[in-house]
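In this section we walk through a basic example: taking a raw amino acid sequence and producing a predicted 3D structure, encoded as discrete structure tokens. The instruction is simple. Fold the sequence below.
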Amino acid sequence: VPIADYTFNEFHHSCYLLQPPQHTFLYSFSGLTSLVQRSGMRCLNIIREADSTYLFLLHSYLIKQNRQFSSSLSDISIFIRIKYRIICLLLRLRGLGDNLCLVLAK
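The resulting token sequence is shown next.
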């Protein structure tokens, strides 16, 4: 599940994670885990994934720049790409990321 975390905080309304019709609302980490608890379920495991965050950041960057979404990602400055690679590496090292997988039990 994509969540409102790093990419959303960086780009807000230009966030690539808002992809109608499948993703019109982004949960926060605390909101999603609260929803699970209120449903009577319990979390057995929480897995956060940062690798796809790199692409989310690049696509959000293009949207914010009002560039065609079909633009090649290689057209983005090497400095921007390196910046986002470093951010994703730091997120991964901290166990964070914009994708969340919850293993639930009743």
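Looking at the output, two observations stand out. The mean pLDDT is 87. Strands lie at 42-49, 99-105. In the next section we compare this with other chains.
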